[in-house]
Amino acid sequence: MNSIGEACNDLKRDYDACFNTWFSEYFLKGHTNDSMCAPLFKVYQECVKRAMKDQQIDFHEVEKNLLGTEQERKPPQKPS
Amino acid sequence: MTRFYEHTTIFNYTWDQVAQGFWKRYPNPNSKHVLSEDTVCRNVRSGRLFSTRLLSKTNPIPKWAERFITSKHVHIIEESIVDPVNKVLITYTRNLGYTKVMSVTEKVVYRQSDEQPGKTVAVRSAWIDSQIRGFSRAICAFGYERFKKNCNKMVGGFNYVLANMFPLQSTVTTTHATITATSKLKDAAINASALAKSKAVPIYASLHPNQS
């Protein structure tokens, strides 16, 4: 799968490979330390953030967390 | 106005398998409309994995909607939380831009099935809104139908990826190991993969680029 920035494709591929290994072999088995892929993530992130800026994507909007907050949508109330 | 949609799907895979497959579900034969996928934020807090991903997708719309939307692509933000202890994966997805024209928010909760061990239940909820005066009903109706169609594509595509990652899953039985087991397992793997592919291809073949 491509990155939003063509220049980031290789960095994304390397990071994703590391993450998928870490997720299956470590995280799902109870080892939650996420430093294993941190260096790859850092370089990949710098590239993605540059690409997002070039494409005028609003960072503030992207980084807003709604899941688990008051702003999360709720199913309509069922009539009692 | 808001249209609300709710649907439950069962995946014939364990929660661990679904959680691993979640990050690898693109590309698949049903995801030609997904153009890019990036992780923009990720950390572990209190033993749970929090991620935010940015996706871009093509945005096929009917002719009458072209006056409201000029972009051929739409950006999607996907937040997710993976709880490996309770085996719950929650995703929360929304579009960026054009949200007043049409906003689609989707929440999916993936849990182990209590009734069917070894399977995963996905409960999907979605809210489709529009704030365009005079057109909101039509826009919501269009959005709702497109969403339903895309959900079927997504489940088919996800199953395709899971079948390739875990080919023995659909044919696992509690048999004793025998000398012929190896060749049987190999045949089963080929069959499961072929079955998944044959299920995915008709779904993909029925897509038309201009389908709204």
From TrEMBL, chain A:
**Source species, domain of life:** Eukaryota
Task: List UniProt keywords, sorted A-Z.
Answer: Disulfide bond
Cellular component aspect of the GO annotation = cytosol; mitochondrial intermembrane space; nucleus
Q: Tell me what reaction this enzyme catalyses.
A: a 1,2-diacyl-sn-glycero-3-phosphate(in) = a 1,2-diacyl-sn-glycero-3-phosphate(out)
Any one biological process term the GO annotation gives? phospholipid translocation
Q: Where is the signal peptide?
A: none
Short name of one Pfam family for this protein?
A: UPF0203
Task: Tell me the GO molecular function terms.
Answer: phosphatidic acid transfer activity
State the family named in the UniProt similarity comment for this chain: Belongs to the TRIAP1/MDM35 family.
PANTHER family (UniProt xref):
TP53-REGULATED INHIBITOR OF APOPTOSIS 1
> What name appears for this protein in its UniProt entry?
TP53-regulated inhibitor of apoptosis 1
UniProtKB/TrEMBL annotation, chain B:
Q: Which InterPro entries match?
A: PRELI/MSF1_dom, Slowmo/Ups
Q: Where is the PRELI/MSF1 domain?
A: 2-170
One Pfam family assigned to this protein is: PRELI
Q: Which GO terms describe its cellular component?
A: mitochondrial intermembrane space
Coiled coil residues, start to end: none
Record-linked PANTHER family: MSF1/PX19 RELATED
Name of the protein in its database record? PRELI/MSF1 domain-containing protein
Give the organism the record lists: Zophobas morio
User: What lineage does UniProt assign to this protein's organism?
Assistant: Eukaryota, Metazoa, Ecdysozoa, Arthropoda, Hexapoda
